[in-house]
Amino acid sequence: MARRTTFTPVQEKTLSFLKHYIVKNGQAPTMVELGKEFNLRSLRSVTQRLEGLERKGAIKRDRFQHRSIQVLENSNSLIPSGTIRVPVIASAGCDAMEVYAQDEFGEYILIDKNLINVHTNIAAIKAVGDSMQDAGIRNGDYVIVEVTESVENGDRVVAIVGNMAVIKQYKKADGVVFLNPENKSGEYHPIVVGQEDSKIFGKVLSIIPGTEWVDDIKIDYYPGYSPRK
Fold it and tell me: If pLDDT is split at 50, 70 and 90, which confidence band does 155 have?
């Protein structure tokens, strides 16, 4: 299973704040100021953000000095070399058809260019609900989707049913489309529709955990998919 590392949305926001604060004030913010900016309850939460950025070479700091955070020169651009900015274009329900597809172009995530590779039509969708948790897709995660109607049985897909978007496992038999949950709890049931009553928006290529404190993103590729070298 391949793994890639990118900036999380939280890390991008933190790096942006650091950069603009330093330009405006001529010095770095304190840990307390960072905590207030992002509504963080503990200094450990602030430290976790900084440690993630430091490991990725975006900042450096002296832990024993006050206001010691430095944004490194190679981080002057908020889009690091080798990455691409992908808009989060919708929310999609994993529980049932409860979440309307909606544009959210104010939010972006950074992903490794090697992830999209030969794919040219890529979108990010934010998952809502837990019916796909056995596939590794949890509430708040981001799924990277190749926008295509060409999918096969067993693929995880984003499907549009009516004017609502869902993330499910795809299966078609005798002109009937089954949009299956992947959760062993038994709480969730397949969505069964005629082929003409649903539209495939795209095929899920990978997931990016939406948990705030994931410092090093681990993109998990599904069986049968790997980026071409």
Answer: very high
